């Protein structure tokens, strides 16, 4: 691990000195060079992730695809989402918009005597070993992510934003970052608060995010792969997560339903938010909370209201391009779409 870290640090330093530092000085932001160094790390992680997506996971999709990709336009929009998030554009916006607010908040809390829970203090000795502390923090953040995901599917207002992610009917390795920006802001704020409270180091935080993002890209791949009876219960596979995106299975609970021979819902009298397989990295939380579904099936993905007309005979349009998808998410949140 040490030699990997040293190579990464050297590359980060080179990007900072060659790109970030001159750019910040040219823009008059010389006072935030430390943040620029962190940004160089995020950029490097993003470039490495995109390389793995293109060189490893992409060919795997062609080897064992679940379905034929016929809507290339929808996939190209997902590529745009991925580039915006993985290359740091969204994170830069978050830094300028929310970092001052979060710094002020924690500053006020410290003044009134609030002392964040420091995981380092609760586990003396263990967190001094880099790979052990990384695993501990990874499990903690994944537990938080499970409940964030449950919230996205439980609260109707939040689902109106998160539904954009599920509206992709041609799931590929690029689909992970297809989210409404407000949905991403909420998740990132929760992550930052948790990171502050448990005392995770900046370098480890970058590593945790990188591992989570790359795994999530693999999970969304158009790939007919599962990890076996034991492996499926240790780490979330493409099959496990695809079921979470399946129409009528993953994102809702159907009551008083009639199903066809293939198990798909033919008609439903009552549909409520719910679903299965909310785990982001680890299926353990789904197993503990009774939301796991380990059926070996590969169903069509999307949201029911995309294909089933409402009382007025209309199906919901989630938008085709980036901005139309974002705007329609706002309209859904306001109850106007």
Question: What does this protein structure show overall?
Answer:
With 337 residues, the chain is mostly helical. The protein is 59% helix and 5% strand. It folds into 2 domains: 2-219, no CATH class; 228-333, no CATH class. The chain has helices at residues 2-26, 33-63, 72-86, 89-111, 119-122, 130-154, 156-166, 181-198, 202-219, 228-231, 238-245, 284-289, 322-333, and strands spanning 252-259, 265-273. Strands 1-2 form a two-stranded antiparallel sheet. The N and C termini lie far apart (50 Å).
Global shape: globular
Q: Would you tell me the overall average pLDDT?
A: 89
Order of helices and strands: HHHHHHHHHHHEEHH
Helix-and-strand structural type: mainly alpha
* DSSP summary: helix tally: 13
Topology, please?
Elements: H1 2-26, H2 33-63, H3 72-86, H4 89-111, H5 119-122, H6 130-154, H7 156-166, H8 181-198, H9 202-219, H10 228-231, H11 238-245, E1 252-259, E2 265-273, H12 284-289, H13 322-333
Antiparallel strand pairs: 1-2
Helix pairs in contact: 1-2, 2-9, 6-7, 6-8, 6-9, 7-13
């Amino acid at each position: 691990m040490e030699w990997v870290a040293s190579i990464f640090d050297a590359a980060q330093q080179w990007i900072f000195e060659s790109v970030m530092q001159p750019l910040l000085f040219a823009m008059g932001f010389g006072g935030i060079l430390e943040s620029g160094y962190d940004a160089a790390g995020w950029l490097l992680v993003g470039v490495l992730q995109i390389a793995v997506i293109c060189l490893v996971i992409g060919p795997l999709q062609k080897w064992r695809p679940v379905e034929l990709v016929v809507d290339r336009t929808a996939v190209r929009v997902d590529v745009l989402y991925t580039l915006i998030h993985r290359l740091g554009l969204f994170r830069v916006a978050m830094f300028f918009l929310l970092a001052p607010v979060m710094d002020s908040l924690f500053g006020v809390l410290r003044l009134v005597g609030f002392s964040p829970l420091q995981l380092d203090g609760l586990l003396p000795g263990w967190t001094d070993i880099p790979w052990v502390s990384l695993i501990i923090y990874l499990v903690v953040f994944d537990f938080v992510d499970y409940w964030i995901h449950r919230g996205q599917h439980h609260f109707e207002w939040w689902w109106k934003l998160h539904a954009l992610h599920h509206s992709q009917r041609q799931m590929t390795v690029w689909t992970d970052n297809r989210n409404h920006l407000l949905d991403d802001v909420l998740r990132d704020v929760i992550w930052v608060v948790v990171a502050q409270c448990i005392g995770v180091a900046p370098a480890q935080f970058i590593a945790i995010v990188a591992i989570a993002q790359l795994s999530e890209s693999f999970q969304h791949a158009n790939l007919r792969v599962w990890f076996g009876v034991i492996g499926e219960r240790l780490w979330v596979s493409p099959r496990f997560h695809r079921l979470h995106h399946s129409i009528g299975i993953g994102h809702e609970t159907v009551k008083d339903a009639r199903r066809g021979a293939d198990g798909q819902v033919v008609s439903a009298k009552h549909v409520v938010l719910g679903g299965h397989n909310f785990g982001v990295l680890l299926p353990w939380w789904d197993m503990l909370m009774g939301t796991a579904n380990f059926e070996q099936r590969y169903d069509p993905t999307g949201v029911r209201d995309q294909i089933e007309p409402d009382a007025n005979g209309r199906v919901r349009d989630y938008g085709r391009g980036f901005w139309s998808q974002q705007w329609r998410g706002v309209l859904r949140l306001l109850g106007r779409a």
